[in-house]
Design a protein that fits this description.
Layout lengths: L8 H15 L4 E7 L5 H14 L4 E6 L10 H14 L4 E2 L2 E2 L7 H21 L2 E6 L6 H11 L7 E8 L16 E5 L5 H8 L7 H15 L3 H10 L16 H13 L2 H14 L7 H8 L19 H4 L3 H9 L3 H17 L4 H9 L19 H16 L3 H11 L6 H15 L4 H14 L3 H17 L3 H13 L4 H15 L3 H17 L5 H14 L5 H11 L9 H14 L3 H11 L12 H16 L3 H14 L8 H13 L3 H9 L3 H6 L3 H16 L3 H16 L11 H11 L3 H18 L2 H15 L1 H15 L5 H17 L3 H19 L27 H12 L4 E4 L9 H11 L4 H8 L3 H15 L7 H4 L15 E3 L1
Parallel strand pairs: 1-6, 1-7, 2-5, 5-6
Antiparallel strand pairs: 3-4, 8-9
Helix pairs in contact: 6-7, 7-8, 8-9, 9-13, 10-11, 10-13, 10-14, 11-14, 14-15, 15-16, 16-17, 17-18, 18-19, 18-20, 19-20, 20-21, 20-22, 21-22, 22-23, 23-24, 24-25, 24-26, 25-26, 26-27, 26-28, 27-28, 28-29, 28-30, 29-30, 30-31, 30-33, 33-34, 34-35, 35-36, 35-37, 36-37, 37-38, 37-39, 38-39, 39-40, ...
Length: 969
């Protein structure tokens, strides 16, 4: 027990002074006040031991207990039993027994006088120490006698030594002790150094284990010696426990539980539990809010306005999870549920984040899914349901779909109005769809069947239809839309459903033709808010069928972007418009429409919205077309990762992500992605998405030199597109790809037929990308001088388009053709430009390769270090084959500029002409031009206006971003 008295020197000194005064005939009282576990009993016993052995005092010891607090004179009887035992007599004073009842005031005074007189006679023979432990548990009469004695100690050789539990209201002391004859000492928790001494007093372990145990005791015991000893007895060997269940014993838990059940006042119990519950949640409560939360007891005891939140030092203790768990284990489940609801309500009223409110309602940690085994009541009030819904939306924005799903499932257990329930069910279904398409479809079917009203069914049907389309069941989706639409009498709503169904029909060849015919009729009579989507779908069909130019399509789309659209059709219309903008090479505008409707990653899009399904595809393909491969992966990998075996195939999105990985050099990963799709499903499904997959797979075969496999996939893609009346090369230029494969297979005549047909359709559409791709295929098929002319025209056309991949590929073909025709210098210049553009295109930006889930595959051809990127690899192989000499490894971009080149580029970026630069730097104009030419190549630019954006690390020369590629000159 000696260790318990650490940091108690001041109290022991005060006791020694009081005892000395008592021995000299000037009696004193001394009160040790402390919260449970701080060692007040041990301190009292140590003082009594010292004064009995060293001071020669007679000790009369009594310990009060709650069980005897209702019996008058119970404490007095204990004290005088000790005195009588020493004298050999019974418990009586001056020949009279101590009363067993609460006497009238006059008799009480007589009894008190006789008791003090008897004690004085005992003390006259030998100084007396009256040691009373736990005075707060004494009966009321005995406490009054203690006060009576304390006021009469001045002439007595008596030391009255008392201990009392410190309550949260020190001023509420029912024992009146006069300040003239004594003092009280409040015991404080032990400091960290003293706690560490206690923790290290046992067997020696490793230095790390000792340090860990000491730190745990300091943090989990709040300086309470009893808790320190209990925790040390419970600890196992090894790392500090993270949960209460990790302790070997139950002493720590029992000490806290015993105090809460038997020693804590009702208010301190409520305050402790409130701290434990609030501390176990996502955010601590402030003082006043904590008091409001704690006011749950049956006695209705309210804290005064100025009461401190933690008068007992409980906050420090319950800041540790072990103490919180121990406190919560000591409480009744109903008590905790009520407390959590109270805290949640207070947080909601204070405007706390919805996630914090929900965490208390469901007793969960933030960012974890609510467990199915939680015994929590269903939300009984609207604010609870709203908090759960808001918290779910926060989780969605953070990419925590599982957490959001659990919150919404619990919200749906509430008693809800039908419309409210339908809204929550639709939102939950949207979250479930990527992970479990069948569960989502079942939920939406049930919601549809529950509604008898046509308008309510019409609100559910589009979500169910979109889910079915995503699952590959377009025919069932069309049936649902027809069935629901036939029961609706509102003409405008009927048109909305018909137009939405037409958007879904694009995934089925036969249904698509029929839907377009209806849209042509509908466009002439539809309300103004429905007409834009009807027009957009007809325009998509006619563009694919080769009957429109890009300019004509834009004259239909652009004015309607400013027109009002029915909110139920908004995403569908924007999806159709974005598709046409993408085909027309207006990629920034298409991307803007997608960004307007789609959430930013890691939040997943709503696949129960057929318009968002379309916009996902546009966003991915637009990023791929501009060569932003890392963006394609970063934006769409979370959605693909969310799929399960029961979920979605999403062949178009898989194609885009696989192509992006392939371009970055992750060839094996790209092949694995494509291989996950079921070819049997593709053969039975006429959705345009499978044609995109075939085209992507053919593209990868071409890059790997599998010409026949590429040709087979290109021709398969062509058959699928033709079945949909889609002949234009705006989406899947399969003829160009097939022509290039046929040239490799030695069939130029067949290749030329396809290339010329492709070029004719491309010129009809009229965008630089489509024309440039077709010219490249034509040049490869025709060969010779005519082929060179086509390739030269293709490069010129592609320079006008946001088509970096096509431009690089065509430059490679042009360079090789020129070298083959004997013009090696110009040919190698083309290859150098292609290499520079490829490096610039693939330079890492804010998304490193490590974040994309794959690493570049090693280069199987080059003997240099591995180089990421299909186009870089192709350019280096072409340069090597074309006779370019190998030079040292250099970085491209602004970091590769020499001092002279950078100085000239900076002046050029400021707008100075070559002549002005030469005059300023005293250089010949020819020298300036040579430096600028080299700088253009290193920076990967073609215009003077592009220089400013490439300086200062903005270009590919950023040392942290540029690849240390092998440059071939």
């Amino acid at each position: 027990m000696r260790n318990v008295l650490l940091e108690r020197d001041e109290a022991l000194a005060e006791a020694a002074r009081a005892a000395e005064a008592a021995r000299s005939g000037n009696g004193r009282w001394l009160l040790f006040r402390a919260t449970t576990g701080l060692g007040r009993t041990a301190l009292l016993e140590e003082v009594a031991r010292r004064e009995a052995t060293v001071g020669g005092m007679r000790v009369l010891h009594a310990r009060c207990s709650p069980e005897e607090s209702a019996f008058p004179f119970g404490l007095v009887r204990l004290i005088f039993a000790e005195a009588g035992a020493g004298a050999g007599a019974g418990v009586e004073v001056d020949g009279e027994d101590i009363p067993f009842a609460d006497p009238p005031a006059a008799e009480e005074q007589q009894t008190f006088h006789r008791l003090v007189a008897s004690l004085a006679r005992t003390a006259a023979r030998r100084p007396v120490l009256v040691a009373v432990d736990d005075l707060h548990d004494a009966d009321a009469v005995s406490r009054r006698w203690i006060g009576y004695l304390a006021r009469r100690l001045a002439g007595l050789p008596v030391l009255l030594l008392l201990t009392e539990c410190l309550t949260e209201y020190p001023e509420k002391d029912n024992t009146a002790l006069p300040g003239a004859t004594g003092t009280s000492v409040t015991l404080r928790p032990l400091g960290p150094a003293a706690v560490a001494r206690l923790a290290l007093a046992g067997p020696t372990r490793t230095r790390k284990q000792d340090a860990d145990r000491a730190e745990l005791c300091v943090r989990a015991c709040a300086g309470n010696p009893a808790l320190v000893h209990a925790l040390l007895a419970d600890l196992r060997e090894g790392p500090p426990p993270g949960r209460l269940s990790d302790l070997a014993g139950r002493r720590y838990r029992d000490v806290i539980g015993h105090w809460l059940r038997t020693r804590a006042t009702p208010r301190s119990r409520r305050l402790s539990l409130a701290m434990a519950v609030a501390g176990d949640g996502p955010a601590p409560l402030g003082g006043r809010l904590l008091h409001e939360a704690a006011d749950l007891g049956p006695d209705g005891h309210n804290a005064p306005a100025d009461a401190p939140a933690d008068a007992l030092g409980l906050g420090l203790l319950f800041s540790h999870p072990l103490a919180r768990e121990a406190a919560l284990a000591a409480a009744e489940p109903a008590e905790l549920d009520a407390l959590r609801r109270r805290i949640a309500r207070l947080l909601d009223e204070q405007g706390a984040p919805a996630a914090h409110v929900a965490a208390h309602l469901l007793h969960i940690e933030l960012h974890t899914e609510p467990r199915a085994d939680l015994h929590t009541d269903r939300p009984g009030e609207e604010w609870m349901t709203q908090s759960l819904e808001d918290a779910a939306e926060d989780a969605v924005r953070g990419g925590r779909t599982d957490e959001a799903t659990g919150l919404l499932r619990h919200a749906l257990t509430a008693p809800l109005a039908p419309a409210r329930r339908a809204g929550l069910a639709l939102r939950l279904a949207a979250l479930e769809l990527p992970h479990s398409a069948d569960a989502c479809i079942r939920r939406l079917r049930a919601a549809l069947e529950l509604h008898a009203d046509g308008h309510e069914r019409a609100a559910v049907a589009p979500a169910l239809g979109a889910a079915l389309v995503a699952r590959g069941r377009t025919d069932t989706a069309m049936h649902v839309m027809r069935q629901v639409g036939s029961a609706v009498e509102d003409d405008e709503l009927v048109r909305v459903l018909q137009t939405t169904a037409a958007l879904m029909a694009s995934h089925d060849a036969i249904a698509w033709r029929n839907a377009v015919a209806r849209m042509r009729e509908l466009a002439a009579t539809a309300p103004a808010t429905v007409e834009p989507l009807a027009c957009g779908l007809v325009t998509e069909y006619e563009a694919g069928a080769g009957g429109l130019s890009a300019a004509e399509a834009m004259t239909r789309v652009l004015p309607r972007l400013k027109a009002p659209v029915d909110p139920r059709l908004r995403t569908g219309w924007l999806g159709s418009a974005a598709t046409l903008l993408q085909w027309a090479d207006r990629l920034d505008e298409a991307r803007a429409l997608a960004d307007e409707c789609l959430p930013a990653p890691p939040a997943l899009p709503d696949l129960t919205d057929i318009g968002q399904q379309c916009l996902i595809s546009v966003r991915a393909e637009a990023a791929l077309w501009v060569g932003d491969f890392r963006r394609v992966i970063a934006e769409n990998a979370p959605l693909l990762d969310a799929r399960t075996a029961q979920g979605l195939r999403m062949p178009h999105l898989v194609s885009m992500v696989a192509l992006a990985h392939h371009e970055l050099g992750h060839r094996a990963h790209a092949r694995r992605l494509v291989a996950t799709l079921d070819e049997v499903s593709a053969s039975a499904d006429s959705s345009w998405e499978w044609n995109e997959l075939r085209h992507a797979r053919a593209h990868m075969h071409m890059a790997e030199g599998s010409w026949q496999a590429a040709l087979d996939d290109y021709l398969s893609c062509g058959r699928g597109q033709s079945a949909r009346d889609f002949v234009s090369p705006v989406a899947t230029p399969w003829r160009s790809g097939a022509a290039l494969a046929l040239v490799r297979l030695g069939q130029p005549a067949r290749a030329l037929d396809l290339a010329e047909e492709e070029l004719r359709h491309a010129r009809t559409w009229g965008t630089p990308r489509a024309v440039g791709r077709a010219l490249r295929a034509h040049g490869a098929a025709v060969g010779g001088r005519r082929g060179l002319d086509s390739l030269h025209e293709a490069v010129a056309v592609l320079r006008q388009a946001p088509a970096p991949v096509e431009l690089i590929e065509t430059l490679l073909d042009l360079g090789q053709a020129r070298i083959g025709a004997g013009n090696g210098r110009k040919g190698r210049d083309d290859l150098h430009e292609a290499h520079t553009l490829a490096l610039r295109l693939l330079a890492p930006d804010s998304i490193p390769d490590s974040a994309l889930g794959s690493e570049p595959d090693p280069d199987p051809v080059s003997d240099s270090a591995p180089v990421a990127g299909r186009l870089v690899r192709a350019a280096e192989n072409a340069l090597r084959t074309g006779g370019a000499r190998r030079t040292h490894r250099v970085a491209m971009g602004s970091a590769a500029l020499t001092v002279a080149e950078r100085r000239i580029v900076e002046l050029a970026a400021m707008g100075q002409t070559n002549a002005e630069i030469g005059a300023a730097l005293h250089l010949a104009r020819r020298t300036v031009e040579t430096h600028l030419t080299n700088a253009y190549r290193k920076l990967g630019v073609t215009r003077r206006t592009q220089l400013a954006s490439c300086l200062g690390g903005a270009g590919t020369g950023n040392p942290s971003a540029a690849r240390d590629m092998t440059a071939l000159a």
